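Escalated from tier 1: iron/sulfur cluster holo job.
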Amino acid sequence: MFGTGLLKGLGVTLKHALETFDDDRESVPDRYRGSLELGNNRRVIQQPIDQEGLLTIQYPEEKRLLPERFRYIPMLIWDSEKDEDRCTACGICAKVCPPQCIWIVRDSDENGKPLTRASEFYIDAAVCMSCSFCVEFCPFDAIKMNHDYELAVYDRYPQLVYDMAELTVPLEYYAALWPTQFEEEETRRREEEEKKRRQDEEKAARLAAKQAEAAVKQADAPAAPKRSAAELQQLARERAAQRQAQSADGGGSDDDDAAAKKARMEELKRKAQERARQRKLESGE
Ligand code: SF4
Ligand code: SF4
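Tier 2 regenerated the structure:
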């Protein structure tokens, strides 16, 4: 029917107006309850999660509290516990970044050997599209998305090309910005460390058991008799003589072997004939 869409639109506007009025009526007495003071007469408004109306924020004096999942440009994590950058300069984030706005220079020692840390790290915030691919692919939880969106400047270069010092934040800052995600990561890390510790312990126990088994076997084995030097020399002489005799016996020619075989056969034949003659005599034939 003609005009239905118009009526629907007005209905939505009216709904929001009433909800806003309702929300305002409830929160006006303590609109700033739970808000965070930023100094300079600025504050972050803690807008109730279940609010349905359209609360007006007096920006820039007031800012809305951002949800945890909000992301703007990346930041690099400085691990305060280990007192080092988490970034190992592996370069994965730079490879996966769709607009290619990350540059990394790997650090090296005095001999030119590459180190697992970056000496320079740049992100061009004018090109970054806040996709968070770099965060998803980083294997070391070294890069995360910052909530700071107030980056307006007059010139793109150099202000919007952030270097390592500008990008780096302490771990506590990240934990405060992303509390749920941080806790999940820490739980996972603790579980992995615990698993590795258990595996190491089992490995050490298996090794100790093997060593103990070998020690028991060694203790059970009969001890070799101790011989004096003169006895050992005598033994060596006897063995040498034995070997010599064996080689002399086994060292004859093929003709000698054949003759010995023939003599043996004749001996056996003669013995058999002798036994047959004896049996005949015994039977009286
Ligand atoms: S931020 Fe992560 S992915 Fe990027 S270079 Fe550093 S460790 Fe590698
Ligand atoms: S958020 Fe996306 S565009 Fe920005 S630096 Fe990371 S990967 Fe590149």
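The longest helix spans residues 179-220.
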